[in-house]
Automatic annotation (TrEMBL):
Keyword DNA-binding: yes
Pfam families: MerR_1
Domain of life of the native organism: Bacteria
Protein name: HTH merR-type domain-containing protein
Origin species: Rhodococcoides trifolii
């Protein structure tokens, strides 16, 4: 059963995707819209499915160029072809996420150490200087990096 054509405001309401985002997707070639006789953007079932695909891909943090490539495959090829394109993209994003996790873990450890050293620093009535306990360890770490 074919859904009747939806105007941009209706598609936005039905999907929760702001109209500004729908217009942006159109300008980027991700979500083409037909035009009614009076010039309004109109969308059919396939556009709604395409938007669901874009939304799912965005939830995986895929870039717009990656999504655009996947959409071309999705529109013209088999599910196996989409899977073949999507798998490496997801693997790349997993590797990037692992790098980010490692960097954030190291940052958390540095912050935790700095907070502990800061707590050990005496409350001197004089201005701070490079010999402060929390700075010495941080400067040592920077010097060895």
């Amino acid at each position: 059963m074919r859904m009747s054509a939806l105007r941009i405001s209706q598609l936005s309401s039905a999907t929760g995707v702001p109209a500004t985002t729908l217009r942006f997707y159109e300008s980027e070639g991700l979500l083409p819209a037909d035009r009614s006789a009076n010039g309004y953007r109109v969308y059919d079932d396939r556009a709604r499915q395409r938007l669901a695909f874009i939304t799912a891909a965005k939830s995986l943090n895929l870039s717009l160029p990656e999504i655009k490539l996947l959409l071309r495959v999705w529109e013209k090829d088999s599910c196996a072809a989409v899977k073949a394109e999507l798998g490496p993209a997801i693997e790349s994003h997993i590797a990037h996420a692992n790098e980010s996790i490692a960097q954030l873990t190291a940052l958390r450890e540095s912050l935790t150490d700095a907070l502990a050293r800061l707590g050990d620093t005496p409350d001197a009535p004089t201005p701070c200087n490079p010999d402060c306990t929390w700075l010495i360890s941080a400067n040592t770490a920077v010097g060895t990096a």
